[in-house]
Amino acid sequence: MSEPRKLEVLRAIVEDYVHSREPVGSKALVERHHLGVSSATIRNDMAALEEEGLITAPHTSAGRIPTDKGYRLFVDQISAVKPLSPAERRAIQSLLEGSDDLDDVLDRTVRLLSQLTNQVAVVQYPHLSRALVRHIEFVLLAPRKVLVVLIANSGKVEQRVIDVGQDLGDDALAGLRARFLGSLAGTPLSQLAQSLPAVVATAAPGQRQAAQALAIGLEALAQSSREERMVMAGTANLARSNVDFPLSIGPVLEALEEQVVMLRLLSEMAQDHRGMAVSIGREIPYDGLAEASVVATGYGPDSAAKIGILGPTRMDYPTTMAAVRAVARYLSRILGP
Amino acid sequence: MSEPRKLEVLRAIVEDYVHSREPVGSKALVERHHLGVSSATIRNDMAALEEEGLITAPHTSAGRIPTDKGYRLFVDQISAVKPLSPAERRAIQSLLEGSDDLDDVLDRTVRLLSQLTNQVAVVQYPHLSRALVRHIEFVLLAPRKVLVVLIANSGKVEQRVIDVGQDLGDDALAGLRARFLGSLAGTPLSQLAQSLPAVVATAAPGQRQAAQALAIGLEALAQSSREERMVMAGTANLARSNVDFPLSIGPVLEALEEQVVMLRLLSEMAQDHRGMAVSIGREIPYDGLAEASVVATGYGPDSAAKIGILGPTRMDYPTTMAAVRAVARYLSRILGP
DNA sequence: GTTAGCACTTGGGCATGTCGAGTGCTAAAC
DNA sequence: GTTTAGCACTCGACATGCCCAAGTGCTAAC
């Protein structure tokens, strides 16, 4: 019983099963693939693979299907990332060019990726922790309500309405703005919290309370831009692969809607030597996604933010990985410096 | 055959069917409701109702289920909007208080509404057409790239990066900003387009090109804040009511994702005398939503923006309408002046 | 206008039987 | 030692036939 052939059999099982959604038997295998041995031999190999926990039989006299572990081995050792078709490359290129607004780019990107893969696509907003303060704006909305706007050099804008706790004139507010902006322009968002007290201390005593409130508002903004967000597209694809989620897609939709879950998941995925991160089935520490897999990769300057797809474990990993990687690369290029 | 009793029969059919999801027959009807007549009489009434197209039988020897038209009559003439339970009122109140950031309020609101109704909840961002220009900010990102920020008195912020087409210093940009802001502060967003050319005309000839580009950017921002957005929650509820969407929920998810569809739908729904807007099944001019109903109502100062839910036609309209209305009222109060 | 009674329709559930795919095992062949 | 052929066995998928309960529509009587 040769080891290479066993892997070959696993590969064939994964490919056939992904293609047909039906448990694949020994006979069908020798017919569809020219393995050069008889079905009986394959049966022996399959028994060994089952012994190792790589495949399993849904019931006694059915073919075998890959387990999570089987997919894992397949992804790690067997499959090669398929190149995209020229048509797909063109689609990516044409769809992502001609727009420089961040929201817009990300929106187009997820839609594209979901169409390309027929799965649910997700993309994290780029991290801003190493972004710098570009501009600060205070706008008086009502006697004590101030709209605080924080603009980063990345082009990201965060805003919030806060109650300053004391009446404040336009002039006083402008003065505070100048004070804050003068001290903080160019400060990394990540260090904003440390720098704020010093600024507050320089404010006139009569404005101290307001200055304090504004500082808290700014800190919250810097915080909330580090606390990430994501965009998503293609949830309708889940319905198509209804059959692949035995329990119904409810829990999956819940997970997707609870963005915190997805964001943590994406953040914690480790990339392999190819730069791809793949989590399969129960490897994902979230019950609702026990039948799902996530394929993701980093993008942007330091590859800190992730883009990826979520689909059933029974998925065409090579093609999907190729699409994710290609889209991530184009996205990096567009957002690039 | 009395007309009032026929309506009563329709009411009973709708209520039972919504409750049990099973076609309801004449015998079960007289048992569950004390109608004071025999099943044979009910059969006659049902035949008449079917004649009028208000109910239909899935197959020969099954009970009847309401048609879209039947639901419509039920909603318009028979049902009374149920009052919410005190617990629900409390839930609404406690969940929506303690936050003044628009995004946050809307996010909490949809989540709440989707939980309350067990349906998909959607809410339009408030219209800004009658909002006024509060503040304008230009930030130089790169030699020719300017981030244009438009802040309305409603607290809404819109931003975009534009290419001004010529190199511009910080000082020049500040000058342009003062010029724009001086002329436009307080202008309704809806009239921004008309006012812009005059401002551009006052710019120094050397900055004319940039001023023009900035004006176009501002106009686009005013436009894009009228072009509305929406927030959504509770899509997982669709999976629960899987059975009610015979074809699968795919098309429904597609419609929801294609926000343009939902926004048009919400905008075009007319409210009835109670202030509620209900679209049932095929009344919705979108094939994917043929099995769905939308219950919505306006909120905010002029009730221009809508909040509502989407679910299967087989839904508990009275309770749902009550929840939507209650949430809309609380939301109006919170956003109110 | 209402009721009782009855013949008729029909989908759903159930038991039964058959078929085919697929397995595991053993013994022989290479 | 590995591969192959053969065979008994298992089990789900499918078709068939059957019966039953629910429900209808109609007619005639109240």
Automatic annotation (TrEMBL), chains A, B:
Residues 18-60 form the HTH deoR-type domain. Keywords: Repressor, Stress response, Transcription, Transcription regulation. Transmembrane segments: none annotated. SUPFAM superfamilies: GAF domain-like, Winged helix' DNA-binding domain. InterPro entries: DeoR_HTH, GAF-like_dom_sf, HrcA, HrcA_C, WH-like_DNA-bd_sf, WH_DNA-bd_sf, WHTH_transcript_rep_HrcA_IDD. Pfam families: HrcA, HTH_DeoR. Residues 103-321 form the Heat-inducible transcription repressor HrcA C-terminal domain. Belongs to the HrcA family. Negative regulator of class I heat shock genes (grpE-dnaK-dnaJ and groELS operons). Prevents heat-shock induction of these operons. HAMAP family: HrcA. NCBIfam families: hrcA (TIGR00331). This is Heat-inducible transcription repressor HrcA.
